[in-house]
Amino acid sequence: MSIPLAVKLSPFITALPNFARRLAEAGADGLVLFNRFYQPDFDLEKLEVVSNLVLSNSNEIRLPLRWIAILYGRVPAEFAMTGGVHTGLDVLKAMMAGASVTTIASEFLHKGPSRVKEILDEITVWMEEHEYSSVLQMKGSMSQQAVAEPAAFERVNYMKVLSSY
After folding, report:
1. What is the pLDDT of residues 126-161, one digit of tens each?
2. Selected residue with higher pLDDT from 123 and 38
3. For 101, phi and psi rounded to 5 degrees?
């Protein structure tokens, strides 16, 4: 009998590719990128620590998207993307980076569980319009190993992006 093990990772890990590989070698079946930490705030008038839940938005998808695309095919584990997934297009991006699953908590908290059907419909329509027959067909198709310009994922591309602004 085997029990699948997924490890939630923080975005604050030094040498993430090495750490991810070592987790997979130690027996982790999946890696969740990235665990979102509770971050309290201070009320300076009352001098109290206060809870302040801030829901994610689609812009937060970029960090886990980049790292899953870099790790896919290099680390023998499944990937889950958490944070910033709100639309069917966000789910598609995650799958094309190499994720096997996404989490969509903020979107459901904001708009309710009926959003599930809408997201699935968005995915289906996009896949039909772009002639994809399965999620497996697209999985990893935008990973660093699969794209024409793999340097787009690297730090050196930062200067190129800045100069284009």
Report:
1. 999 999 999 999 999 999 999 888 877 776 566 666
2. 123
3. -155, 155
Peptide bond into 34 cis (omega under 30): yes
Cα(117)–Cα(137) distance, integer angstroms: 22
Residue with tokens 């930062």: 158
Do 69 and 150 meet the contact criterion of CB atoms below 8 Å apart?
no
- State which amino acid sits at residue 143: S
Which domains, and CATH codes, for the chain?
6-164 (3.20.20.70)
Q: pLDDT, tens digit, for every residue of 42-94?
A: 999 999 999 888 888 989 999 999 999 999 999 999 999 998 999 999 999 99
* Residue pointed to by tokens 């999985």: 139
Tell me if the pTM is above 0.90.
no
Which pLDDT value is given to residue 159? Answer: 62
Which amino acid would we find at residue 44?
Answer: L
Cβ burial of 83 (10 Å; 0-12, 13-18, 19+) is: buried
CA 10 to chain centre: 12
Residue 32 structure tokens: 């969740």
The strand ranges marked E within the chain are 6-9, 30-33, 41-43, 48-50, 78-81, 101-102
Give the pair of three-digit tokens for residue 86.
């709100």
